[in-house]
Amino acid sequence: MKGEVAIRDLGIGDVDALVDLYQHLNAGDAPPSPEAVLAVFAHPGLRHFGVFDGEALIASCNLAVIPNLTRGGGSYGVIENVVTHADHRGRGHSQTVVRHAIEEAWKVACYKVVLTTGRKDPAVWAFYERCGFDAGDKRAFVIRR
């Protein structure tokens, strides 16, 4: 390990490291435009969290808090883009960042947190269950353009 492992909110100054880390999620993705970066980091209710080993960003996820009119007006959270650098996998960093995002959702009174994954690997599903998610609670449907 290079340095002390810490978790914090990511800001616009972390974009280059985050885009590089996303290559470990979706290799070959085109980088976002500067306009997209500004829009994402200005979006209310959207936060990005990062786990750092010293100065190196090694794991991340984001949390969108969605206002809602059901459940007494309780918001809900959506976690996406969970990724750990390939050189740092198997050490609990993704679990750290996911659990941090869940705790942040509870702090703003979300009544639930949802996470979807495109991975078909049962080990990945088991990982999310260890983080507290219930795969049998809801069914997700996706449509892509």
From TrEMBL:
InterPro entries: Acyl_CoA_acyltransferase, GNAT_dom, GNPNAT1-like. Residues 5-145 form the N-acetyltransferase domain. PROSITE patterns: GNAT (PS51186). Pfam families: Acetyltransf_1. This is GNAT superfamily N-acetyltransferase.
